[in-house]
Amino acid sequence: MTSTNVLLLGWEATGLRGYLRDAKVVLEPDKFSHVLLQMPNGTGKTTTMALLRSAMKGKMDPSLSVSALQADRTTKEGSFELHLSIDEEKVSIRIQCDFQMDRHYFYTTTATKGTVSGHKLNEYYPALADALRRSIDLFVFDGELARDMLTDGVNSADDAIEALYRTDTFKDLVREIESLKRARKQRNRDVTTASEQSAVDKLEREFNEAKDVLDRLEQEKSTLERGIRKIDKRVKEIDDRCRELGFEDDEFRLRQQDIEDRSTKARNDIERLAPETVFSFRSPLSLHSIVEVRLSALNSTLKKRRLPRSSKSFFEELAKEETCICGDALDDAKRKHILLHAEDHLGDEQVSVINDIRYKLSDTVDRPEFSAQVTKLSEAEDKYTSVAQERERLDLEKIRAGKEEVEALTSEKDALVEDRILKSQALKFLTEEPVSLEDVDWKRNLRACDALKRDREQAFNIANSNNRYFSAADKLALAANRARTLSKERLQAFVRDQTNSRLNSILDNNNIRVSRIDGRLHLVDEEKLPKDGASEGQKLAVCYAFLTALLAEAPARLPFIVDSPAVSLDLDLRKNVGKLIPKIFDQLIVFVISSEREGFADAFKGREDTQFLTASIDQQDGSVEIDANVETFFRFQSVEAIQ
Fold first, then answer.
1. pLDDT tens digits for 539-553?
2. Which of 95, 291, 357, 370 could form a disulfide with 280 if both were Cys (CB 3.0 to 4.6 A apart)?
3. Contact of 315 with 341, CB cutoff 8 Å
4. What is the pTM of this model?
5. Residue 64, SS3 per DSSP
6. Which pLDDT tens digit goes with each residue over 269-312?
7. Contact 78/71 with Cβ under 8 angstroms?
8. Pair 203, 194: CB distance under 8 Å
9. Distance, CA of 638 to CA of 617 (rounded, Å)
10. Are 194 and 200 in contact (CB under 8 A)?
11. How many other CB atoms are there within 10 angstroms of residue 37's CB atom?
């Protein structure tokens, strides 16, 4: 897969401090792969570097604030716009500053999508997202980062390797694993958060206990049900045999047959009369004859008077009559009272109810009187009870008549009936629905045991699943951490060797080398002794060697932008660094001051692939001029250089 290639086409600014009040820098990467931009100190190099990082990342650099960018108090707004070529497509990122509101906004412009609000590089160019997020500070490089590469406790060298080669994604993976573990515990918190093997074993023992008890109770239930069925079957057999024995004697047979016939008739009468009695009870007209008489009279009166009517006109007409609808004579006082309360007539809902009553009163359905039905039902039940008593007396007579088998069967039946009562009570206690699971012994109640078993099974399954999940997650996190450690160690060794190889070209006849990369760059001489006495220039040279070794294998091809790369280097080091850096990058942009031209800039002089730009500010009117003349570049002397 080819890497994304990003080139800077230039930038322009308005309303910002320093030379950025009104500046436009045009680069020609197709013609010049290296750019040396000379600016005096104090004209905005550091600010420009920070704005370049901000535009690339889509986030304002921590070193910047909107208010500090304001050119002067009268300036209400300003902007910085970076022009890029991304895989040969022109893209612009603009940072718009509103100084009155102290706010800034990003805008993205492309040829295909036009100008849209927001920073869209990550969205439009996903392959570039990681490089912009993780390693842009390595490509837009300043002296602070160079010092951090050799400072204890800062870990800049390690961070640079991890950001560029993405080994820190293993750290992101571990964080995601821990987040998933927390989310799983949160989801299961209402059941159990247990995941340790000891907790899983305990929950499994509790689940197995409940399962064994449930199996025992199920078996006990089946045993009781079989016993009851067996008793019922045997009782029926005894009853049938007793009846058979009665039919062996003519007298007993006739009496037995009569008892059975009357028992059947009484039972049929009860089955017929019971629902009729309930129906009669639900009908007011059946409760008492006086109710029917009075309701019928009311119905006739309502029909005669055409009631109910919801209008007060009924009462006005009534007041003109000689007698009331109830039959009482009307005098002036009563007529006055009727007219006074004529407004208090029935509402629509009341009229509807009364009309419904009228309809019911007109119903001619034959309704048996409730008291008569109760009497008939009571008589049928008495007959059935009487017949049962006669059957018992007949059985006793059979016994007295020498029917020993009947006596034995009757005794057996009594014992069976008593046993059935005990078994039925045990089955009821075993299977009844408890009001509360906490108020019943779950080891003696089937429903409570089943509920507890399901709860324990769910807790065990979740805990067991948690155990497997967390165990796998921990192994994956361990593997990710080990992969990160091993990859870091190998990359550190690889980058160290590449750095030392470049130091051979930069530090002629100098024994300073990188012994190891562990958080920072550690230096030793050839005798393997700590080299803490290296000069600032030598340390800076080591940092450049490290960066060029590191960025040479970068997955995304980004411009390398560096501020004052040679100010601390001696002439020989400047020449060597100047020769080394251009070999690595497709586009190199270097901010320099006049005092570091000698040696470093001389390494680029005469190269056709290098663009020399000089920014100056007119001392009279503050106007900014960008001069692309090579001779101007090498002739220019800034104020601080003259001093």
1. 777 777 787 787 776
2. 370
3. yes
4. 0.53
5. coil
6. 888 888 777 777 766 666 666 666 676 776 677 666 566 655 56
7. yes
8. yes
9. 10
10. yes
11. 21
